[in-house]
């Protein structure tokens, strides 16, 4: 079977930064619904179209095709006394965006002079990413998966 629209595709992948350093890989295979359902990077999905089990794709993506560019308005400097706990580098927390009211995940990227730099950009924003994947399985999507626009697991899926 080849990967076509409305296939459930199972992959093992490795992701590398611009220096070809491994930054992420599957511990367990992942599955996504193929055909424009936003379950995987569009360039990777395009490369996977018409592939078969055992095929490998190797796609290099610029920031716009991966995690986006760094957005300066998602970086803020906050006094340490506004945090309910003692903050440490790398700590993550949710907070409302003062402009939109949307809940964002912020990461502490710097602490100095009684202040913390908080950044809601994806940690890989602004980076070129290489995504290498091997197709492990392909099957037709169920009607329910097509209705919901995503893959349901082996133990069913409840909304």
Compile the SSE list and pairings.
Layout: E1 7-16, E2 22-25, E3 30-33, H1 42-48, E4 56-61, E5 75-79, E6 92-96, E7 103-112, E8 115-119, E9 129-140, H2 143-148
Antiparallel strand pairs: 1-2, 1-3, 1-9, 4-9, 5-8, 6-7, 7-8
Walk me through the structure.
With 159 residues, this protein is mainly beta. 8% of the residues lie in helices and 38% in strands. The chain is built from 2 helices and 9 strands. The strands form 2 sheets. Strands 1, 2, 3, 4 and 9 form a 5-stranded antiparallel sheet that branches. A hairpin with a 5-residue loop joins β1 (7-16) and β2.
Can you summarize this structure?
By secondary structure, this protein is mostly beta strands. It has two domains: 7-67 and 127-148, Chitinase A, domain 3 (Roll), CATH 3.10.50.40; 72-119, Thrombin, subunit H. The protein contains two helices and nine strands.
Termini, distance in Å?
30 Å
Taken in chain order, the helices and strands follow as EEEHEEEEEEH
- Unreliable spans are 155-159
What would the average pLDDT be, to the nearest integer?
91
H/I helix tally: 2
Helix content: under 10%
Structural class by helix and strand composition: mainly beta
What is the global morphology? elongated
So what's the oligomer here? single chain
> Number of DSSP strands?
9
Tell me what the CATH architecture of the largest domain is. Roll
What fold name goes in the CATH topology slot of the largest domain? Chitinase A, domain 3
Radius of gyration using CA atoms only: 19 Å
Tell me the fraction of residues in β-strands, as a range.
35-45%
Q: What composes the largest sheet? A: 5 strands, antiparallel
CATH class of the largest domain: Alpha Beta
């Amino acid at each position: 079977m080849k990967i076509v629209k409305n296939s459930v595709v199972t992959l093992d992948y490795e992701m590398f930064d611009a220096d070809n350093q491994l930054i992420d890989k599957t511990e367990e295979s992942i599955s996504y619904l193929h055909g424009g359902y936003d379950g995987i990077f569009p360039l990777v999905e395009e490369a996977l179209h018409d592939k078969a089990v055992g095929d490998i794709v190797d796609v290099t993506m610029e920031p716009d095709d991966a995690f986006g560019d760094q957005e300066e308005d998602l970086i803020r400097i906050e006094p340490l006394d506004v945090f309910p706990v003692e903050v440490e580098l790398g700590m993550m927390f949710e907070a409302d965006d003062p402009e939109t009211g949307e809940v964002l995940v912020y990461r502490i990227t710097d602490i100095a002079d009684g202040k913390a730099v908080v950044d809601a950009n994806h940690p890989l924003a602004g980076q070129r990413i290489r995504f290498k994947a091997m197709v492990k399985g392909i099957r037709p999507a169920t009607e329910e998966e097509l209705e919901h626009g995503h893959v349901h697991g082996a133990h069913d899926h409840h909304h």
